[in-house]
Specification:
The protein is mostly helical. The protein contains eight helices and no strands. The protein is elongated and about 55 Å long.
Length: 121
């Protein structure tokens, strides 16, 4: 039940559940203790999530996460490099400046909170 909520309440929830389940299945298989109930429930959950978040979301015109949500962590890392004058090539700096002004990144970067950059238009 918790995995179901993780899949639907986090943007990357499916990947968290899928990766964790895969590791647990491999571990159980290697230890010769494969729990059939766990295997069946995990496969059912993953299939359900794929069906719901795929075709059903499309039918009901439910949009997925914003692009910035899906790239928040890499963008936070890039913002750190910009703020601390890390080594960034000119072509990369120019590309980044097309996405958001470099001055904005340096003035709004907070190490523990990406929301300032993420939710600012």
């Amino acid at each position: 039940m918790l995995s179901f909520f993780v899949c639907f309440l986090r943007n990357n929830g499916f990947f968290i559940v899928f990766g964790t389940s895969l590791v647990l299945i491999i571990y159980q298989f290697k230890q010769h203790i494969l729990n059939k109930f766990f295997l069946i429930s995990t496969i059912s959950l993953i299939c359900s999530v794929v069906i719901i978040q795929g075709p059903i979301y499309t039918i009901f015109h439910i949009k997925g996460a914003n692009f910035i949500e899906s790239v928040a962590i890499p963008f936070q890392q890039i913002s750190y490099s910009v703020k601390n004058e890390g080594e960034i090539e000119d072509k990369d700096r120019e590309f980044l400046n097309q996405i958001t002004p470099i001055e904005f990144l340096t003035s709004t970067y907070k190490p523990l909170n990406f929301d300032v950059i993420k939710w600012n238009d």
